[in-house]
Write a structure and sequence with these properties.
The complex is a heterodimer of chains A (about 120) and B (about 110).
Chain A lengths: L1 E4 L4 E5 L4 E3 L2 E4 L4 E7 L5 E7 L5 E3 L5 E5 L4 E6 L8 E8 L10 E2 L3 E6 L1
Parallel strand pairs in A: 2-12
Antiparallel strand pairs in A: 1-4, 3-9, 5-6, 5-10, 7-8, 8-9, 10-11, 10-12
Chain B lengths: L3 E4 L2 E4 L5 E7 L6 E7 L5 E8 L5 E2 L8 E7 L2 E6 L8 E9 L2 E4 L3 E5 L1
Parallel strand pairs in B: 2-11
Antiparallel strand pairs in B: 1-3, 3-8, 4-5, 4-9, 5-6, 7-8, 9-10, 9-11
The chains are: A mainly beta (about 120), B mainly beta (about 110).
């Protein structure tokens, strides 16, 4: 089974500051990991994904995440926050796109606030 | 890229009536689709996995007789909320499983009055 823990339900940063959103996972099989962003009353947009290739993954809008197996972590970072980054961020895990572990399980989410 | 169309985007219904939500893959065949429910300011909770041509697999605690899922073709999965009550009010999102990706619909806001 898979599960995700996102540390910090709310994170607040200043515009231009580093963004760090934490995600730890648990998986009984090699994990596939994802970060999604959700703006109010909208669907999900994929920021980036790890699917067992390079451990440092670069995504859209300047975000990146590093898969660390020893720490069971997949933290999301962005060097410099923009006001437009304010949204809800979800980390998610699955056991791959095929087979019996293809369900995508979400963490509780982290609300990012960016202030001037 | 691949697109999943979810309809309607919002619906208001009276308590006791049924509501059908459609999730349609526009340019690909989706053998597997997932249905999620999201309460305000909360995460997405997986309700069920829908496989084309077979019965859906429901997550623990989800009432299969209340949330009817049909996946009769490779491009369409439907979720019917039967005998809806105010506590069923929520944001429902579908996702299609593609080779190498999960593609999400834009969601349906259901309000039961």
């Amino acid at each position: 089974a898979q599960s995700v823990t996102q540390l910090g339900s709310h994170v607040s940063v200043s515009e231009g500051a580093l963004v760090l959103l934490r995600c730890n996972y648990s998986s009984s099989v090699p994990p596939y990991l994802f970060w999604y962003v959700q703006y109010p009353n909208q669907g999900l947009q994929l920021l980036l994904k790890y699917t067992s290739a390079a451990t440092l993954v670069k995504g859209i809008n300047g975000f990146e995440a590093e898969f660390k197996k020893s720490e069971t972590s997949f933290h999301l970072t962005k060097p410099s926050a923009h006001m437009s980054d304010a949204a809800e961020y979800f980390c998610a895990v699955s056991g791959g796109f095929s087979g019996g572990y293809n369900k995508l399980i979400f963490g509780a989410g982290t609300r990012l606030a960016v202030h001037p | 890229g691949a697109v999943v169309s979810q309809h309607p985007s919002w619906v208001i219904c009276k308590s006791g009536t049924s509501v059908k939500i459609e999730c349609r893959s526009l340019d690909f065949q989706a053998t597997t689709m997932f249905w999620y429910r999201q309460f305000p300011k909360q995460s997405l909770m997986l309700m069920a996995t829908s496989n084309e041509g077979s019965k859906a697999t429901y997550e623990q605690g989800v009432e299969k007789d209340k949330f009817l899922i049909n996946h009769a073709s490779l491009t369409l999965s439907t979720l019917t909320v039967t005998s809806a009550h105010p506590e069923d009010s929520s944001f429902y999102i579908c996702s299609a499983l593609l080779p190498g990706a999960y593609t999400f619909g834009s969601g349906t806001r259901l309000t039961v009055v």
